[in-house]
Amino acid sequence: MLKTNRDRLPIISVQGQVSNPMSAGPKIDCDGTAHFLPGTGGIVFNAKIGGGACGWVGDHIEPGVSTKNRDEKFNAAYNINSCIGNEAKVVSGDAKGAKGFVTGKHGGIENVMVYFEDSVLEKLNHDDRILIKAWGQGMVLTDYPDIALRNVSPTLLDKMDIVASGDILKVGVAKIVPAKIMGSGLGHWPTHRGDYDITMFDKASVAEYGLGDLRFGDIVAITDADNRFGRNYLQGAVSIGIVTHSDSIMPGHGPGVTTLMSALDGKIVPFINPRANLADMFL
């Protein structure tokens, strides 16, 4: 187990609600055609971690249950403090008492996505409140101070395929993505919330890096990407993140990646592990 300061991290409750779906369009594709498609928000019954993130007849589909606090100030705390792998509990409505876990964050709409079992999805509605035991922001790797952690719970960190090798960490990932095809969200800060998108419009790059079968919940590496403080291109940096929403028809958009860790100068070395997915770790 990697040494961290987890014993000093507060476990604090943050609370949101199941969020309503947003407007379905129009969205303009790369050829200038307008589309009206399902998009962010709501309860998505058939898009799940472990399932494909590409090819949906939709745009920026969020798997499972999309949540947010309707007060903007409180939602900032809800979004920033929630970490991937944190326990989530339904605290109102027909599904009261059911437990799941955080699977991602979506910038712009500022939603937090949560996994629940199918039987729970059938009982949820858009007024139900979700309480998250937020634990993880501020965590540091005691022996690797140059590697920044963001949005990763201690629970997830312990489940990840990480091998310590001298002063570097080798991290198992489902895919390795070049920074040159990262789009929407580039330049945004802080990386303690939100995501940025893998653009999927260059077919040669998609084929070269095997991105067509990206899954919700995949842990991926982005090479030449510094995500310590903002989302930035920087040669030699590597960032690790998690695929949190689906692809998109809009230029500059695609499957979203929420940051988990980032470092400069080769301190993170990714290697392929096809089972580097939340579904394989938690279900």
Structure description:
The strands form 4 sheets. The protein has a 6-stranded antiparallel β-barrel with strand order 1-5-8-7-6-9. Strands 10, 13, 14, 15, 16 and 17 form a 6-stranded mixed sheet that branches. It has helices spanning 72-81, 118-121, 154-159, 203-208, 278-282, and strands at residues 12-18, 27-28, 34-35, 43-44, 64-68, 87-90, 99-106, 111-115, 129-134, 148-149, 162-165, 168-173, 175-178, 196-197, 219-226, 232-245, 256-263, 268-272. A hairpin with an 8-residue loop joins strand 6 (87-90) and strand 7. It is built from 5 helices and 18 strands. By secondary structure, it is mainly beta. The chain has 2 domains: 10-134, Beta Barrel (Thrombin, subunit H); 148-282, tm1086 (SG structure) domain (tm1086 (SG structure) fold, 3-layer Sandwich), CATH 2.102.30. The chain is globular, with a radius of gyration of 18 Å.
